[in-house]
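User: Reviewer 2 asked us to show a designed sequence for the structure in our supplementary figure. I'm pasting the structure tokens here. Could you produce the per-position amino acids so we can include them in the response letter?
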């Protein structure tokens, strides 16, 4: 996480550190994050737990209907209440009461904790003892004004889908396979494949919302002029040349602005300059330092240790050079984000 924040200590990247690098024993952090995104549109900073309970429980119930396992523990009175509401055994007002009583016991304290320490930026302050709720901070409202804000809801949702799927399937490192199929990450187990989440949404946070090559801002919103392209660092043209590399693996996927990927002087099917190989390693290590399933996917594709992964990338690059010869780099480089 320290390396992730090393070059860009922005509000959105502190937020991303919570979503991508915080420990997950239940999905409550994601539900609270989506709730905070909603509440950032209001003017009043003070939020009673009863007010927090409606959107918080709504987000949990929405996911419970698709993925019943929302925690690593075997039982949860709060999740039991959400299940009862989902199948009609509990009224909405009763769910709000139960959420207020049970839903926030740990998540409010743990939200800003990453790698066993609290991040220096807070998006809310705990006022349960003094005021019966939380107080939204100026940093949360400022986050809403940032260019990257529109990407954050999709990044939360993608991360949530990854975590709950791993819990639901009880995935181990050897059983997991995540690849790209068009614009989606797909998960494979026991010869069955299913769409997991949007590839753009899952990758964007790890690139801090920047083009992998030139570091201009990109978007994961479908109607945006900045919508990112999904690019293979080692081009898929190598498949046509029968090069034995697993090019559709997550390790080889990056997000690029359209200009870099397919503009007049874009990368197209060329190989990036070698200086970008270190950047790919850094980006992949962001995955490794977060929690599965993408962590296990990258390690299974490239190596268990950092030394093995560096060797793998160098070997893959040398192989690609032998076939493609020419290298590409962007016309413009913005301030590095990682």
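Assistant: Here is a per-position design you can include in the supplement:
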């Amino acid at each position: 996480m320290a390396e992730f924040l090393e070059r860009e200590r922005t509000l959105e990247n502190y937020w991303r550190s919570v979503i991508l690098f915080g420990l997950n024993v239940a999905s409550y952090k994601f539900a609270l994050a989506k709730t905070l995104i909603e509440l950032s549109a209001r003017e009043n900073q003070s939020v009673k737990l009863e007010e927090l309970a409606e959107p918080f429980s709504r987000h949990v119930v929405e996911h419970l209907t698709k993925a019943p396992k929302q925690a690593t523990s075997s039982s949860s009175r709060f999740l039991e209440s959400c299940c009862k509401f989902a199948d009609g055994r509990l009224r909405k007002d009763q769910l709000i009461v139960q959420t207020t009583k049970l839903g926030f016991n740990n998540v409010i304290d743990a939200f800003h904790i990453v790698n066993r320490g609290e991040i220096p930026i807070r998006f809310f302050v705990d006022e349960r003892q003094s005021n019966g709720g939380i107080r939204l901070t100026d940093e949360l409202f400022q986050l809403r004004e940032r260019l990257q804000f529109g990407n954050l809801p999709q990044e939360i949702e993608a991360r949530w889908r990854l975590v709950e799927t791993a819990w639901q399937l009880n995935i181990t490192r050897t059983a997991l396979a995540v690849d790209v199929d068009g614009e989606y990450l797909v998960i494979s187990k026991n010869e069955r494949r299913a769409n997991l989440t949007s590839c753009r949404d899952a990758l964007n946070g790890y690139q801090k919302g920047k083009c992998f090559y030139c570091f201009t801002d990109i978007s994961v919103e479908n109607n945006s002029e900045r919508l990112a392209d999904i690019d293979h660092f080692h081009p898929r043209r190598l498949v046509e040349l029968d090069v034995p590399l697993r090019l559709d693996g997550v390790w080889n996927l990056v997000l690029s602005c359209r200009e870099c990927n397919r503009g007049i002087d874009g990368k197209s099917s060329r190989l990036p300059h070698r200086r970008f190989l270190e950047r790919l390693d850094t980006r992949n290590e962001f995955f490794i330092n977060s929690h599965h399933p993408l962590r296990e996917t990258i390690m299974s594709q490239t190596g268990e240790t950092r030394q093995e992964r560096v060797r793998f990338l160098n070997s893959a690059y040398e192989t690609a050079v032998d076939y493609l010869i020419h290298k590409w780099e962007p016309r413009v480089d913005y301030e590095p984000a990682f």
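For the response letter, you might also mention the following. Residues 148-328 form one domain. DSSP finds 16 helices and twelve strands in the chain.
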